[in-house]
Amino acid sequence: MSAPETQYKQPSTVAPGQRETGRSPAATGPVVPLWVGRMLAWLVFAFSLVAAVLLLIAFFLQLTGANPAAPFAAWVYRGTDLLLQPFRSLYPTVKGHTGQSELNLSLVFAILMYGLFALVFDGLVGWFDRWIRRVY
To answer: What's the pLDDT tens digit per position in 45-102?
Structure first.
């Protein structure tokens, strides 16, 4: 019978009284870029959410034939004017049978594009995050 093999532990380089974190000093390097990327992703999500909510409110106001001279409707239309600019003439606006309500599919398309932009940006930040972690 042979003697049981014993495994030797390498001596720890952690000072007494400190816990071992399992991370090398180089692993703490990309923390700032990753934090900045995550914050940018949250800002893009916040912007996209506010833009989508305003565009959705404008869509329902137009669909129900709200008075554009009313203060709330005027505020929403002013807020969405710049957001809708790239998508304004993509689809024709269909007037309702009473002439007051409108079906503006450009608003719906803009909502989808702002949501897609947020998802793509989050995917890019996630990919960059994984790439940085793999490099460091």
So the answer is: 999 999 999 999 999 999 998 999 999 999 999 999 999 999 988 888 888 777 788 8
Q: Is 65 contained in some domain?
A: yes
**Closest to 43 in 3D by CA, of 128, 122, 124:** 122
CA distances 41 to 15, 36, 54, 96, 134, Å, are 38, 9, 20, 39, 20
Residue in 57, 32, 35, 72 with CA at minimum distance from that of residue 107: 57
Give a yes or no: residue 34 inside a domain.
yes
| 81 is a domain residue | yes
Count of structural domains, the chain? 1
Does some domain include residue 84? yes
Whole-prediction pTM value? 0.69
Buried b / exposed e across 13-41, counting CB within 10 Å, b at 16+?
Answer: eeeeeeeeeeeeeeeeebeeebeebeeeb
pLDDT tens profile 105-122: 999 999 999 999 999 988
Q: What's the domain range around 62?
A: 29-135
Question: What is the chain's Cα-based Rg?
Answer: 27
